[in-house]
Amino acid sequence: MNIFRILGDISHLLAIIILLLKIQKSKSCAGISGKSQILFALVFTTRYLDLFTTFISVYNTVMKVIFLVCAYITVYMIYVKFRKTFDSENDSFRLEFLLVPVTGLSFLENHSFTPLEILWTFSIYLESVAILPQLFMISKTGEAETITTHYLFFLGLYRALYIANWVWRYYTENFYDQIAVVSGVVQTIFYCDFFYLYITK
């Protein structure tokens, strides 16, 4: 494990913590896309099924459990605990436009045609586009709370650090995962415009 991977994981965790604290403190999920959070919960669920079959390290296991638990707590807060504050009218991105092509691509392009591998591949492809409902919501309303922008910044930073992680692993371990790298680059591109606005404003 290298410093870029660790910093990426920390950035990812910070993003989730910022979001959860924002919701809990304000007792509101206004400005947050519940659909994006459902997609992230689906990403973690399909990616971390190996929790029951493979042990890599204590760090790896703990981080997987934390991401899973936090994802479902976030969905619970949006759709149950603070559902009266949820802006369903503006959270209108149609998820089938993402789920259908991602599912099809997972069956067509994967490392091996096994259930766990297809689900892992599905999670990688889905994560690359899971933030789109949130970005669509912001573009539709024309505004985003400061906390929400911090959340998006750290999510984007996580992806950028993971690209550095892949470059490092390629040169030090001769490791290259085309599915993860291409999907990660696509996801980071979605954040580029947001990064520019975040830094200049």
Description:
This protein is mainly alpha-helical. The protein has 8 helices and no strands. The N and C termini lie far apart (35 Å).
Question: What would a concise description of this structure say?
Answer:
Helix content is 75%, strand content 0%. The chain is an all-alpha fold and 201 residues long.
- H/E element order: HHHHHHHH
- Average pLDDT score: 89
The number of helical elements comes to: 8
Tell me what portion of residues adopts beta-strand conformation.
Answer: under 5%
Radius of gyration: 17 Å
Sketch the major β-sheet. Answer: none
Pairing-aware structural class of the strands and helices?
A: mainly alpha
Give the number of DSSP strands: 0
Low-confidence region ranges: none
Shape: globular
User: How far do the termini sit from each other?
Assistant: 35 Å
- Name the helicity range: over 70%
